[in-house]
Amino acid sequence: MAFQLEFMKGLNHPFSKNDEAAGRKWLHSFLRRHQELNLRKPQSTPMARIRGFNQENVINFFDIWEPLMNTVNHSPNRLYNCDETDLTVIQHKGNKLVSLKGKRQVGSVSSAGVTQMSAAGHFLPLFLVFPRVNMKAELLDGAPNGSLAVCHKSGWIQNESFVQWCHHILRNAKPTKDDPVILVLDGHYSHTRNVELLELARVNGVHIVCLPPHCTHKMQLLGVAFMLPFKTYYAQAIEQWLKQNAGRVVTHYQVGVLLGEAFNKGATVAVATNGFRKTGLYPCNRHIFSDFEFQEVSPNTHEASDHSSEALPNRLDDANTSQPRPGSSSINGPKTPQN
């Protein structure tokens, strides 16, 4: 912007015409002149993730995954991944701006959303949780066809609502013991505390496998391929809605329409197939990650406490074993932080 202003005004400037941008020296001088401004650095990968994402954990996961693929005859139509995220009514995926120090804009969580896609590119309808007591049909106005919504005052997905979510899967994927599906989830500890859900999955032919601990930044398919463009489209939809409705604010009753617009743009066959390919789950490729992606960490390096996931049983059949391993079965209500 500084280069463009100088160019438009025809002023003499030291900026590079090739780069068409102000230089680092100018930026430092600008910040010295405006002490109320600063630059913010991105957070680094937590130490637990650096240590957790290693060759041993990935190999152990694929030792479980490859034989399990035989139960569905390596059919991409029977491979599903599920992930949850929080959705706010505040635009939160815009470009970074230079701002006043200490200036913040905090938005409240509007809903928790659960998304699921198959290796063949099929996205199941959304499952939403609104932070309120009473459900109203208007909350789903404009949402993707077939979407389901429930309410809970905490805004978190509870055990009971996650069982409802499992029924949501059964209605859409239609698994049976003769024609099962494989469902890949992250390994959060709360995914193993719902016996009713485990039994429902076992009876209906749903094989549940958990990703290795602290590896979701590389192996969570929806996180790798879908969530970023989806949230970007959602933020753009909010921005456009606010422009068209000056003086109004986005509420729960607009979330369905905004989500529908973002979901229809982001939920493409290419996105789904790319997520499975990039993580090596389909086509199955245990060597998908290069050696340089596994960062070596000194044993003496301090590891920050991280309770977001833990080693879990490998399969639904191992849920009662005492020795945890990288993959696991069963799911419980994912907890989406409430602002």
TrEMBL record:
Pfam families: DDE_1. It comes from the Eukaryota. Residues 299-339 are annotated as: Disordered. Residues 319-339 have a biased composition (Polar residues). InterPro entries: CenT-Element_Derived, DDE_SF_endonuclease_dom. Residues 150-245 form the DDE-1 domain. This is DDE-1 domain-containing protein. It comes from Periplaneta americana (American cockroach).
